[in-house]
Amino acid sequence: MSSNLHPMLNVAIKAARAAGAIINRAALDVESVRIAQKQINDFVTEVDHASEQAIIETLLTAYPDHGILAEESGRKHGAKDAPFVWIIDPLDGTTNFIHGFPVYCVSIALAVKGRVEQAVVYDPARNDLFTATRGRGAYLNERRIRVSKRTELKDCLVSTGFPFRPGDDLKSYLAMLGDVMQRTAALRRPGAAALDLAYVAAGFADGFFESGLAIWDMAAGSLLVAEAGGLVGNFTGEADFLEHRECLAGNPRIYGQLVAILAKYSKFAAAGDKAALHAATAAVKGSGGADGPDAPH
């Protein structure tokens, strides 16, 4: 840990590395990991619980009067009404992890009076540590990072996440996917939103969009993007988005182009945009998309 870093960020890094050590040990024999299913296609493992516990213990040992908001245990730990709240996803990309697909991470953010001030996203498989303190820039392994400089969407690599839970609107998503796919150089679905946002911050991807996300998926990554010179919000471009369950990020030029495409798919879209969405999803259905003979069921 560096003496130049904010002390709270140093503690978050210590917590993330402790969780990463647990994840890496389990990854050596992933087939023996006990798995439970929270709902269809939404998994939790003993590794999620153990890494979350290690993070919480590290944070509360240093800051016993802070609050905790964690994916697996909610607000069960920490002070209940503290202005300082740690937002934790102990293993983002659990489905990847249990299949041995090495794209997953630990995500830790500190919100002060509702605003994210510190962020750590740690990829234990690659030992990549992304960090940010508000106003001090974003870093990958202590090297300053910036969002990409591409200005044309047709030249861009954009990442996303697919709907996978019961009740997700697959028709709408297929229309959205088609809208973006035909305007970009390539689309990727790595499977860990916090890492997707970190990659936008580092310039590895030019943009990212996904719906159905929780605050712990987005909090740390959103600060990384902002401190790397990018923009992040919901599909309509609103910056106050962490409770909206949708996220869009990119370098400033690409972000604007993606908002123009994706705004009509937002649940916060205006009535005219909603009408355009219904027309788009009808077109997908008419072309044998979501309801076609090879559609997933």
In summary, what is this structure?
It catalyses: a myo-inositol phosphate + H2O = myo-inositol + phosphate. The protein is an alpha+beta fold. 35% of the residues lie in helices and 24% in strands.
Structure description:
With 297 residues, the protein is an alpha+beta fold. It folds into two domains: 7-145, Fructose-1,6-Bisphosphatase, Chain A, domain 1, CATH 3.30.540.10; 153-286, D-Maltodextrin-Binding Protein, domain 2, CATH 3.40.190. It is 35% helix and 24% strand. It contains eight helices and 14 strands. It has helices spanning 7-27, 46-62, 94-98, 170-181, 193-202, 215-227, 252-262, 271-286; strands spanning 35-39, 42-45, 67-70, 84-92, 105-112, 115-123, 128-133, 138-140, 143-145, 157-160, 186-188, 207-211, 231-233, 246-250. It has a seven-stranded mixed sheet with strand order 3-4-5-6-7-8-9, sandwiched between helices. Strand 6 and strand 7 form a beta hairpin. Helix 4 (170-181) crosses helix 8 (271-286).
